[in-house]
Amino acid sequence: MIFAGYATDPEVTRYLLWKPHKSINDTVDFLARCYFLIQERVAFPFSITMKGTDELVGMTEMRIAGSRIDLGYVLGRKHWNQGIMTEAVQQLIAVGFQEPTIFRVGATCHTENIASARVLEKAGMVREGILRCYSLFPNLGPTPEDVYSYAITK
Ligand SMILES: CC(C)(COP(=O)(O)OP(=O)(O)OC[C@H]1O[C@@H](n2cnc3c(N)ncnc32)[C@H](O)[C@@H]1OP(=O)(O)O)[C@@H](O)C(=O)NCCC(=O)NCCS
Hints:
The protein is α+β, with helices and mostly antiparallel strands. It has helices at 2-7, 10-13, 24-40, 84-98, 114-122; strands spanning 43-49, 56-65, 68-75, 104-110, 126-135, 145-153. A hairpin with a 6-residue loop joins β1 (43-49) and β2.
């Protein structure tokens, strides 16, 4: 579902930090990385499924950095603009703040990724500013690009 659903789609991966998967081996490697991150307790990937089905339509990831959680997320294109990721991000914020040691949940997104910025705003995060030349986007070019920094605090 990851491979066929979204990981090979260049529209989906345009503003992500990874290139579209070329073969199922890329997806297998990705899942091995997920397993490693969970084992090491540095990040927690979650799959998003539609209510009442086992269909995986996207994923989120919570990356733990001390008293902070940084979020990442992706959704298959046919499920865009139905409020799914806003609901998912709201849930991640709620879960994150249940941890007494976590005081901030944040995310960055490319300044042209309007849908992602909107998700973060609808989930209650505040745009803190622009981090200039901050992240390399392998599907856009070889130089780092500007991103918005968003966060919500406890
Ligand atoms: C970003 C992404 C996760 C959004 O998920 P989603 O479930 O479609 O988001 P939601 O439906 O909750 O909200 C999307 C909002 O963006 C708006 N939007 C989407 N495209 C837009 C555009 N081109 N211009 C203006 N607004 C746009 C929608 O109208 C909606 O806002 P609204 O509810 O006020 O109408 C999804 O588009 C995606 O997976 N993109 C590719 C991967 C990616 O970019 N991940 C984020 C990396 S930071």
